[in-house]
Design goal:
With 237 residues, the protein is an alpha+beta fold. The chain contains 2 helices and 10 strands, in the order αββββββββαββ.
Amino acid sequence: MTAHPSAPPTPRRRALLLLTLAVLSGTLAAASVRRREAALTRALGPEALVLVTRAPVAAGAMPASARPLLRTLPRRYAPPDAVAGAARLLGTRMAVALPAGSILTASVLRADRAAGPEAALGRGERVADVVAHGDPRALVPGARVDVLVTRDGDGTRAGTTVLALADVEVLATRRAPSDAGGADGGARVVASLRVRVRDAVYLAAAQAFARDVRLLVRAPGDRAPAGRGFSVDQRLR
C-alpha cells in the first residue's frame, strides 16, 4: 500500500499552535521576571524611612521650607544619620543649601535656639497641642491643616462632625503615645498648632468631649476659606 502524505495544517490549527507557544513564552517570561525581582529584593535588603526635600532650600532657612516628605529606600543606601521623622527638624535650621530631592541628614542641620514653636508666635497667638488622626508623612512643620471634631450623640440626636478650625499652621509634630491610639487603629500624632487664644481653649476642651479629632492637610499654597463651622450629623443629612 502507498502511504499518503499527511495533510498540511489548516490556518486555524496554525493559529492555535502559535497562540499556545505565545502563552507558554509569556508564562516563562513572567516567572523569570518574578525570580529576578525576588533576587533583587533579597540583595537590596530591608527598607528605611528618610525625609526627602521636595523644594530647594537655602542655608539658614527652616527645613519646613523644603516641604520634606517621607520616602522609603533600601537601608544600605540610606545615610547613617538620615532624618526619619518631622520631630527631628524642630528647633533646627539648614546648615547648607540643598536642591530638591535631597535626603535630610543630621549633618546638614544646625541647632537654632530661637526656632522653637513659641518663638514663631505673634501677638494673641498660642501653641495648642492636640492628639489627632492624621497622615504622619504629611504633617510636617509648616504644613497647613483643617481641624475636624466629631462628637457622640446624646441619645436623642445623632452625633456630629464639625469643621472646627480652618487653615491652621502646624509648628511641630511627634508620634502619639501608644495609649492615645484610636479604637479604629488609625495613625495618631501629637501636633502643635498655631492658633488664637479662643481656639486654643476650644481645642483643649475638644480633647475631653470629642470622640475624635482629625487633621486634614491642605495642598501647598491652598489658603482658600473652608467654611468653618460646617457640620454633618452621623446620618449625613
